[in-house]
Amino acid sequence: MMDGINNKKVTAYYHLPGLFEFYEFYKVFLPVYRKHREYFYDWCEIGSIYGAPTDCLWGGGRIEFGEVSAKDVLALMKEYNISARLTFSNSQLKKEHLDDKRCNELCELFSKNEGNKNGVIVHSDLLLDYLRQNYKNLYYVSSTTKVLKKFEDFYDEVKREEFSYVVPDFRLNKMFHNLKKMTQSQKDKVEFLCNECCWFGCKDRKRCYEEVSYRNLGEKGLGHHCMAPNAKEGYRFSKAMKNPAFISVKDIREKYIPMRFSNFKIEGRGLGNALLLEFLLYYMTKPEYQINVREEIYLDNMLDLF
Length: 306
Fold this sequence. Notes:
By secondary structure, this protein is α/β, with parallel strands linked by helices. It has a single domain, classed as TIM Barrel, CATH 3.20.20. It contains 12 helices and 8 strands. Strands 6-5-4-3-2-1-8-7 form an 8-stranded parallel sheet. The longest helix has 13 residues, at 23-35.
């Protein structure tokens, strides 16, 4: 798709959830994506798939539930030439946690994988320094769990050379006046969270992420409970679409790509196969072919969507 500024083609790269959590889904979806590329928009590609297996101390953002082996995950990503990202965004790590055997083995395996370079999504600078020293073949993504609500703080994060990508707090998504002033190299690092359902006015988002970090460490935490309106409803895509920070397909094509931003993150590691399919239909699939993709997925008896 042309960017509308200097007639240069810009590709939107989607960073998708559930590397381990939705492994079985991607085993079904990715062959459809490769075989029937005409079903999907020609201006977008899959930039990466992110996630982490069950019971990782370094995990954060969400409680993980993926049980598939890392070797199988990496084999699938290599087959489709997709970058794999480990979600190690725990904010409460201490020095003694850096010796965790399982997390180190995962980083070792991901850093040696042939093909596309793999990455790690991080929150803790302690962990970042450790990983950079020990796993030099990985790239690093600054996690949205830092909840950098002020544009100045986010801008400082983008300028950090350690990070290949930075995911801003979703409430910065529409600050176009500031975003358009960034240099192209800075824009290339920004990865917008498109479909956040969290209440736009939430003041406890950082505490929510901290609670997950404590739980991943097996610690009690602070006992945070979400007080957002309608929180009991859980995630609903229809509600996310009404969020002031929601980034629609139209926004991507008519606002972000012309401004030459190209990276977009889809959340949903804990939401299940059915919602993941809805995200992929909405963001990647041409409307006239959505029924074809649904049928390809539904008719695969090995995949339990519901």
